[in-house]
Amino acid sequence: MSARHDPQRRRDRPAERDEERRAFREEAESLVRITAAPTIWSGHFLLCYCAVAIACAKAGAVPGWLTGGLLAASVAALAAIGWVGWRAFRQWNVTDTGDFSNPEGEAEDRHEFLGHAAFLLAIISFIGVVYVTMPLLLVEGCR
Amino acid sequence: MSRRDDSPAAAGEHADERAPRGPYPPTEAMLAEPVPPELQAAQAERLRKAWETPKGWRYWSAVNNSEVGVWYSLTAFCFMLLAGLMALMIRVQLAVPENDAISADLFNQLFTMHGSAMMFLFAVPIFEAISILILPAMLGARDMPFPRLSAYGYWSFLIGGIFVMGSILFDVAPRAGWFMYPPLATEEKGPGSDIWLLGLSFIEIASIAAAVELIVGTLKCRPPGMRVNIMPLYAWYVMVVGGMILFAFPPLIAGDFLFELERSFDWPFFDPTRGGDPMLWQHLFWIFGHPEVYIVFLPSIAIAAMIVPTVARRPIVGYSWIVLSAVGTGFLSFGLWVHHMFTTGLPNISLGFFSAASEAVVIPTGIQLFAFAATLMVGRVRVNLPMLWIAGGLAIFTAGGLTGVMLAIAPFDFQAHDSYFVVAHLHYTLFGGMVFPVIAGVYYFYPFIAKKRLSDRLGKWAFWLIFVGFNLTFLPMHLTGLLGMPRRIYAYPAGLGWDWLNLLSSTAAFVIAAGFAVFLVDLLRPKSRQPQIARNPWEAGTLEWSHDVPEEAWGARSVPYITKRYPLWDQPKLVERMDAGRYYLGDAEEGFRETMITSVIDARPLQVQRVTGPTWKTHGAAIFTGGAFIFPTFHIYWPAILCGAIAVGFIIWWLWSDTARPPEKEMKDVGLGLSLPTYASGPKSVGWWAMWITMLGDATAFASVIFGFFFYWTASPDFPPPEALDPVAWLVGLAAAAMALAWALTRAARSLNRAGRLAAARGALAVAPAATLLGAGALIFSVLHMSPTAHVYPAIMWAIMVWVVVHSGVGAIMQLYCLAGSLAGKMTPRFDADIWNVALFWHFHALSALVACAVLGLAPMVLT
User: Fold this and answer.
1) Residue A118 is assigned to a structural domain of this protein
2) Where do Basic and acidic residues bias regions lie (chain B) (predicted)?
3) Residues of A with CB below 8 A from B356's CB?
């Protein structure tokens, strides 16, 4: 696997390892946490779709304030995904360990792997939100 | 997920006594200590006895994953062949212009059944079948956690499948297209649409059962040490697909529920003359229908994720990227459904959202293909037959993906909609993304399943026949479609430029059929004279290739401690130690079938799960469940209700006699000095997880019915209609209060029982069903004065009522079951899994009852 992967390096820091070990134990919920970014995408998607569908069905038009509000929601969603992604990137910790693929059956690798997966999902969710925002900017009216 | 998994103190007062004891993880010194040969032989003998497959006619009472998985796969494969024959008949009819080989009516039945059978009877079930068959071995598990649930699912599938497929022999098959659009399907005479609805609802329930089994299996039955970052990619895909099934199938079940109420009782959900809306069906169908495509695709590509590293002889490149790909696709695929409805007149801006999401899903879908390509590029590739099928599949899938990118653009779709271009596109994605990888999987896993090998020569013949035949059949259809030929027409005039294209497609369809014939011959030819195969014929790195040759029914001789993604490559002496029984559960001293339950994230050993053995109870349950679904097809209701009651009886008998019984001893030595509890309740038990997952699916279905209510409100200017009667408010309020009371009593019974206050717990459990029935009764009477056939507004109110009342019935049975368990000594303060599961059901049910009461009682005031 990664040539820079060096397990020896970790064993040199026993105090830090204990602290890390505790942190790893405390993340039993992290399997759910990797879905945070795509869940934000889903929420944003549903909000846009439902708001526009109701506006078109009930008012026959999408009022400017609604488009503005949804664009603001897009910005908020992107910011939230960005934050999730940043935290996940820190959890992956690739800049310190140089370990890109985390293939070992150890707590640290599992911890960093979940960070990596969450980070990648944040990227894809970010792109998803940008895509779904484009019709708000490019398509007008309900026709 | 629960932090409780990791901190014993949080799981109740007896947790410490039932916490795992002894060293974990095992040291190298412990693993290196040999097991005496006499002991090995005695252990093997005991295991063999516990896991013995029944002989003679009793063979069919087996529930072990290796038997049920094989039946399931073969049945799905048979349905696929039948649906393929139907396709051939369609192609014969379309070979030349103005043909009259078959009647228009039969043609309609054929294309409806071809689509329905390929999707519901082949594509989804084969995923469940293959997963049940190979997943436990990949995880070093002895069996799935609920073998009888798999068996029940299989027998339900078989009965439902034969019923639906058989209808074509009696000329009563559904004929309104595989998506059953109203009003065509609701107005259709004869039982065709009912057969589709009820037969397939029955099979959908079997699918959800399989999803529950597979999700719990992946999360809780991994071998010790197999953390989430080293589990086989196949398991990741299975988990994602299981989750997708839970959110995708329930909207269809809700749609079927409304549809059948319209067919049977004339409640006008989809009838615009009485306020209904056919678009609701389209939404519910495609909220299911699009994720369905990925439900079919992901597990097949998961097979590729197992074959590619073996061929490249190196670990997969980009493990995390593939996980991203699976999870990301799982989410995004739920934002695509309207791209099947681009021409229904929805606002353009809405189409824009779905078009955007449809383009976004291409990214994760593409990433996994690049990961496979990268693995092959950096590996030391040794091409084998399964890889040939994977390569062919990826080539075809890529072509289908590209036309998908085109069709996701709404203006292009307006042009190509309902033409043969779409037929070409969907067959390219499904053949490339599903059929080829699954056949690759059959070739790859055949030595594991049957302990024999398929022929390389015949396999190559089959591949080239199907590959060439496929492209000659479906590539021309792009052009036929662009030249304007619509789908689902049974004849066409000459001279439109379609003639030679159709003739080419029809001829080549028989080349595909020839390829399948070769494959079938290879699969079924006797192989008894074949010499014994090598244990790991492909030199793969994953755990399923530690299987025993010749076959043993015990799954894994001992459950290993895993520290690598490819344990057979990277953990020396692993197989040798497994065989010696050096690892966990290498014995069956008490003669029980057992497997290990571990924690969700890090797979630390938690419990020994006793799994159930051969039985006929599941057959009884499946047959009578079948009756409950099949009789209403012919509008015969009393026998259906009787069948339903008997099915419930069988299920209660099965649960009562064999599940969550107090064990003969609380702790058990599982080897390597580790002692594990033999019983668990609440979030530590697999049953509780299964209930949680089932109820999540159930809640999704309920949410879909509620969505229907609000859909009518948005889609129609006069909903609720001004002159309509509303539900009786005080009765709705009474129902809400009674349901809340029933919930509180159930929840209290759980705590009282745990605290040893048995009389109080039994009292609560005796009063709770009365409260439940009071609530259900109040709800019935609150809508009784409204006529459900008059307008969709009373109809949807009735539908919500029916949903809640039926669940209340189930809830009351569960309360009484716990009461009976407490009185009979099956459920005690220490062994209380039943009440934990029932309380969990009630959390969900109380919530949905309150939502229902809010809609019935408050929405009329708010919305008018």
Assistant:
1) yes
2) 1-20
3) 131-132, 134-135
A3 touches chain B (CB under 8 A): no
Q: Which residues contact B603 (CB under 8 A, 6 or more apart)?
A: B222, B223, B224, B225, B226, B227, B562
Query: Taking CA atoms, what residue in B is nearest to A107?
Result: B602
- Measure the CA–CA gap between B181 and B717, rounded to whole angstroms: 23
C-alpha to C-alpha distances, B754 to B65, B688, B719, B838, nearest whole angstrom: 35, 16, 49, 14
Please indicate whether, in this complex, the C-beta atoms of B324 and A124 are within 8 angstroms of each other: yes
Chain A touched by B312 (CB under 8 Å): no
The DSSP element (H or E) to which B477 belongs, if any, is: helix B456-482
For A39, the domain range is 34-138
pLDDT in tens, B563-611: 999 999 999 999 999 999 999 999 998 899 999 999 988 899 999 999 9
- The low-confidence residues of chain B, meaning pLDDT below 70, are 1-16, 864
Cβ(B90)–Cβ(B506) under 8 Å? Answer: no
Q: Mark the ranges of chain A whose per-residue pLDDT is less than 70.
A: 1-30
Separation in Å, CA B332 to CA A54, A84, A124, B238: 22, 18, 10, 17
Q: Domain for residue A16, yes or no?
A: no
What is the rounded CA–CA span in Å between residue B518 and residue B857? 63
Report the residue count for chain B: 864
**Span B649-667, pLDDT tens digits:** 999 999 999 888 899 889 9
Q: What is the ipTM of this complex?
A: 0.90
A18 contact B CB<8A:
no
Residue A5 lies in a domain: no
**Position A116 in a domain:** yes
Which residues in chain B have Cβ-Cβ distances shorter than 8 Å to A139? Answer: 348-349, 352
The rounded distance, in Å, linking the Cα atoms of A131 and A128 is: 5
> What number of C-beta contacts closer than 8 Å exist between A and B?
155
The domain tally of chain A equals 1
* Pick among A34, A89, A121, A143 to test the B interface (most B CBs inside 10 A): A121
Q: What is the DSSP string of B43-73?
A: HHHHHHHHTPPPPGGGGGG---HHHHHHHHH
CATH of domain B693-863: 1.20.120.80
What's CA B712's distance to the chain center, in Å? 30
- CB contacts of B329 in chain A (<8 Å) are none
Helix (H) or strand (E) holding B670: strand B667-671
